Amino acid sequence: MSTELKDASVIALRDCMGLQAHEILLIVTDETKKEIALSLHEAGKELCKDSLLLEMKSQEINGQEPPTAVAELMKMVDVVVCPTAKSLTHTNARREASKHGVRVGTMPGITIDCMVRCLNADYEKIIGLTDYIAQKLIGVEHIRVVTEKGTDILMPMKGRAILPSKGVMRNKGESGNLPSGEVFLAPWEHKSQGVVVIDGSMAGIGMIKTPLHVEVVDGYAETITGGEEAERLIALLDKVGRDARAVAEFGMGTNYKAQLTGMILEDEKVFGTIHIAFGNNISMGGNVAVNSHLDGLVTEPDVYFDDVLIMKKGKMIGFEI
């Protein structure tokens, strides 16, 4: 176990999760993330009253519920950190733990490289940019995204919660990704219209070689084209059902240390990109409850909040990192 990984584990627990000496920590992992989980567990034992390490079988898809026993244990501790292959962020297990006051940090697909690099970012810079975008979204009715590759989608959002994710979860019941750095929200169901060209990466698939052209009609991904990767995405969505195609989320990355790697946990945090997800959005104030949440990354976007250009080809207007 490297010194860099040990240090990143301490930062994650002490600085991001605010782990205290009197608290109990639970690490939920699977067979794919044992080294990271063990590093967090060892750091936890030094920082808090007790650290528990639980390994389950890797889930099949992002948003799939963990076993009931895991979900129950998540409600019985103070802090839960989840380095897993598939995301537990948009699950009832995570939501119920949060309702019980547990602080939950999810790390779907986390790698050692990502953990070491992104957790050593200057979080004051990330917080500043995240707050800047969140403030700009107040009162906005529609978000429009346009790219030279063919994206042109309009997403109504008036009255929806604006959720800044800064990677710091120190208060009772808070949850989010580790590492983080994004602003996201749930556009209104059945109302998004247009085309999304996913050219960066796609959750469940990885880096995109042939851009995915997604035609959105009345809030659903009705047509998906783009070669072999499109076929794989269609199979993932159809395995779950119709609502897996619902536009669930719009987000903007705010972590200047994040890089495009094919791992959506990091990719969706990349500063200068946006992501649009399909499926479950209950956790962000939406109404789609389905056992799937898949994010697609769009690079070099023009982003409009109503008629105001906020980002031009991935460059934020009015804010310097």
Task: Give a structural overview.
The chain has eight helices and 20 strands. With about 325 residues, it is α+β, with helices and mostly antiparallel strands. The chain folds into two domains: about 5-120, 3-Layer(aba) Sandwich (Thermophilic metalloprotease-like), CATH 3.40.1830.10; about 125-315, no CATH class. Helix 1 (about 5-15) packs across helix 2, helix 1 crosses helix 5 (about 110-120) and helix 3 (about 70-75) runs parallel beside helix 4 (about 90-100). About 50% of the residues are buried.
What is the element layout, followed by pairings?
Blueprint (H helix, E strand, L loop, with lengths): L2 H14 L7 E7 L3 H14 L2 E7 L11 H7 L4 E6 L7 H8 L3 E6 L3 H7 L4 H15 L4 E5 L5 E5 L6 E3 L9 E3 L4 E4 L7 E6 L2 E2 L3 E2 L4 E6 L2 E6 L2 H13 L6 E7 L10 H4 L5 E7 L13 E7 L2 E4 L2 E5 L2 E2 L5
Parallel strand pairs: 1-2, 1-3, 3-4, 4-8
Antiparallel strand pairs: 5-6, 5-18, 6-10, 7-9, 9-15, 10-13, 11-12, 13-14, 15-16, 16-17, 18-19, 19-20
